[in-house]
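Try it yourself: sequence plus adenosine-5'-diphosphate, in.
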Amino acid sequence: MRSSVFSALAWCTIGIVALALALSTLLAAAGAADPARAAVAFLTNWRVWLTAAVALGCGLISIRVVAGSLAHRISGLRQYSDRILDDPAADSQLLHADDELGVLGRSMSRVPPRVHELVQRVSLEAQRREAILAGMVEALLAVDQDLKVVLCNDAFARVAGVPAGIAPGTPLVRIVRDPALVDLLRDVLEHGGPARRRLQLGSSEGPWFEVNVAPLAMPAGRGAIALLHDITELERLERVRKDFVANVSHELRTPLTAIRGYAETLLDGALDDAENRRRFVEVIETHAIRLNNIAADLLALSELDNGALAEPPRPVLVQAAVESAIRTVEPAAAERHVHLASGACGDLEILGYRMRLEQALVNLIDNAVKFNRPEGEVRVEAERTDTGHARIVVSDTGIGIPSSDLPRVFERFYRVDRARSREMGGTGLGLSIVRHAVEQMKGTVAVESELGKGSRFIIVLPAHHAA
Ligand code: ADP
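Structure, out:
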C-alpha cells in the first residue's frame, strides 16, 4: 500500500514541479522586469498545461487505483472478521501483503484460533457448571439486588414446587411463596453479610431446610446466593428425641413420686401403723417393678436403636422361639386364667436373630394375655407364605383396639387406655420394641383388631430356605 500511495503522490508532485519549472523558465526568459507579462505568457503556454495535465492525470489515476485496491482489501478484512465472529472455528484464509494492511491481516489471522479456544473453554466451563448444579442434592439459588433469579438448579425448582428451567430474570416472589426465604435474601442484600437460618417451607407439614446465604458480587451490582440443605429427617429425629426425653421423664415421675410419697408416709409414723404398712410397702414394690420395667424396655430399645448387629442373621427355628416365649409368659397367663395355645410350626425357619424373635413374641403374647378376659385364649401360629416368607400370628380373644388407635399403637409410650396399661405394669414401649426387633430382621409387623372381640398381630419375616 505504501508504494502505491507514494507513486500517486509522486505523480502529483511531478505535475506541480513541472508547473513550477515552466513558470520559473518563463519568468527568467521574460526577464524579471515584467512579472505580469511573464505570468500571461506562462498561462497561455500550452506545453505548460499539457505537462501539468499529464502529471496530474497520472497522479489522479494512481490515487484512484490505490483507493480502489485499499477499499477492496479493507472489505476483505471486514468479511474475514465477520466470518470469524460467526464461526471462530471456520477455516478461512487471509492474503498477506507486505504493508500495513498486511501486518493488520496477519494480526487478525492470529485471533480466530484464540477466540475458538476461549469459546471452547467457556462452553466447557458452562457444561461443567450445569453438570454440578444438576447433580447437587442441595437446592441452589442466586438472585440479583432486585431479587430476580440469576441462577438456580433443578433441586431448587423442586423445592419451590415449580417446573425445572426457571428463566433468569424471573422475580423470586413469583416462584417462592414463603416470605421467610425472601426476607432472608433481602436481609443479606441489605446488610452485605452472610446469614444462616433453619426454615420450614410451605405448610407446617412442609420440609425443613438449613439455609446458608452469602453476598455475591456481580458485574451488574450486588446479589446473594443461597444454599438450601434438606434437614427434614434431622428435624424429625430431633423432635422424636425431645418427645422421647419428655415422655421418659413423665413416665419416671409417676412411680418415683409414689415411691417417695409412701416412703415418707412410712417414715412419718406409718411404720407403726400395723394395718396399713404392708399395703404401703406393696405399693412401693409395684412402682419399683414399674421403674424396673421401664429401665429394661428403655435398655432394649436403645440396644435396638444402636442398630447394626455385628453378627450376620442366622436360621432360627420358629417352633423353638414360640415355645420359649410361651414358657416366659405362662405364669402371668395362669394368674389371669388365660389359655395359651400354639399351632404346629413344623420345621419353619426364619433368617434373623433368635433373641430378637423371642423378645417380639414375648411382648406380643404378654399383651395378648394382659388385655384379655378371664378364660380367654391366646394362639400363636406360624406358616410359610407363597412369597417365601414366614408369617407368625399372635391372636387373642381380648378387649380389642379401637380402629382410631390402630395406626398409633406401635409408637413409643402410646397406650389406648393409659390407666389400664399402668395398672398392668405396662410401659407403653412393648409394641415399639416389637416393631424395632422385627424391622431389624428385615420384616414387618401389622395389627388387625375388633373391639370387644380380640386382636391379631401379624409378623412377616424372611424365611430360611434349607439348601
Ligand atoms: P404396654 O406396655 O402398655 O402394653 P405396648 O406398647 O405393648 O405398651 O402396647 C401399647 C398399647 O396397645 C397398650 O397400652 C394397649 O392399649 C394396646 N394393646 C397392645 N396389645 C394389645 C392387645 N393384644 N389387645 C388390646 N390392646 C392391646
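One thing you can check immediately is this: The mean pLDDT is 86.
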